[in-house]
Amino acid sequence: APRHATSAYNIACGQSLLGEIDAAFRSLERAIDLGFGYRATAVQNATKDADLANVRRDARFLAVIERMTLLRRAAEEYASQPATYVPARVASAEALPVLIVLHADGSTKDEIAHGEWRELADKLGLALVAPSAGTPTGLDPSQGMSWNDPRDGDFDLAADDAKRVSDALRAFRASHRVDRSQILLAGEGRGGQEAFRIASRIPGLFRGVLIRGAVVEPRRSATAALRGLRVAVRIDRGAPIVGLRAASDLDRWGSAFEQQCAELGASADFRIGSTKDDLAVALEKLLGR
Q1: E strands of 86-176, at which residues?
Q2: What is the model's pTM?
Q3: What does the alpha-carbon distance between residue 9 and residue 250 come to, in Å, rounded to a whole number?
């Protein structure tokens, strides 16, 4: 059985062309199970794709479209609102420092808001905002969501993810006074890569970025946004590292990353170790405390 949604969809198209209608429906259902229905263009593709013409003549096709529509609606509803937390000791502050954290692929905004990042928010006196990625990793959005990578060709979906992060901050600012000079962006794994990508495109919004468990590559076209930005990278050697082919390349990547950031006007701090205490020290440094 195919393991990727697009592969399952393409198989369904081939089966439809061959007139293997029952098999095509099984492949379409498999594609939906793997997440095809969550794509913003899924329904449009399925209803207009010439390869599925034979399938569309079958009454079962309407049920397939309805299922995709309902799944997409559930994903959008879950991702539309961030999880937030304000420690009691700073709730009455005149202006709140804010930590925005993007979860890893397969995790959720709720895991961020109720796990060790919440403990860090308590310890450091930071309001916590946890936006959600937009694509579920399974049939239940609350069990895992993933970020869309523009390098995979998902440009529109990646733009939606970035907008969801900025919308989360805007919504929080609508109900809380925020210290605009004390806004940090952090992320785990793919969320860390996404955090760096977003910060690289919005000059002056974030005081600093903390990347946990992932490597990134600065873009020279992002010089304006990176200038003056503080970047911290914290990685455990024994843990999976998103974006790195071999653990033996880690130190070489760290040195090159710090140099590249310096050339672009940013300050980068790469270190081994990503325990909760390591993260606390990194966040305090980014805040200039």
Answers
A1: 96-102, 127-130, 135-136, 145-146
A2: 0.88
A3: 37
